[in-house]
Amino acid sequence: MYKIGMFDSGIGGLNVLEEIKKLIPNENIIYYQDSSNNPYGEKTDEELWTIVSNIVEYLIDKGVKEIIVACNTATTRCIKRLREEYPEIIFIGTEPAIKVATDNNYKNIILLGTPGTINSDRLHELVNCNQSDENIYLIECSGLANAIENHDNDTINSLLHNYLDEYKDKNIDSVVLGCTHYGYIKDQILNILGNIKLIDGNLGVAKQAKRMLEENNLLDGTEEGKIEIVER
Ligand code: DGL
After folding, report:
1. Measuring from each residue's beta carbon to the nearest atom of ligand 1, which residues come in under 6 Å?
2. Does residue 143 have a pLDDT over 80?
């Protein structure tokens, strides 16, 4: 039996899994790596809901009590409905860490995300409740998660230049990685923008996942946790 389920449209959420393993090493985790449906960020709401609810039901059948949505797109577009439709499950979301950037006094912040995330109502709430005098530039990175999933370095580099070159003279001090796949292209982003801070929400997700297990008296693993990755 698995206590924790996780999913993403492929390899992106493995970056979240790394943090989870460090913080909660004794729990059995099943990770659903849904590469066949990548990119989530370019699906309609109904297409995405069908994909996500099928995965959630698969994970519930495996006995999970907590599901970590290791994907910003699925979180910003589906987590509210997931919590309504599956109230017996604890859902932990992955959201663009804008608050981390503003709390650390960064002033010229780029947020990179999929079209699905950048155009979500939730993203605009996150910007509105955290922005005061900062410049927050939202960049919709169509095609980027898919190029990362396919290890297509030429496409990754040309897309990044398309999206970022115009910001080279804007005193950018930080980039929020608003898609879990972007954790794999940190070096390429730094090559273009130079000495800036890269921010992701992975540690925050792991802390929240642990806190919710504790609050629900579910944190009881004693042996080294088993990790299963289901590749689709
Ligand atoms: N890794 C996902 C995210 O965090 C989704 C990427 C995609 O499939 O478009 O948004």
Report:
1. 8-9, 12, 38-41, 71-73, 114, 117, 145, 179-181
2. yes
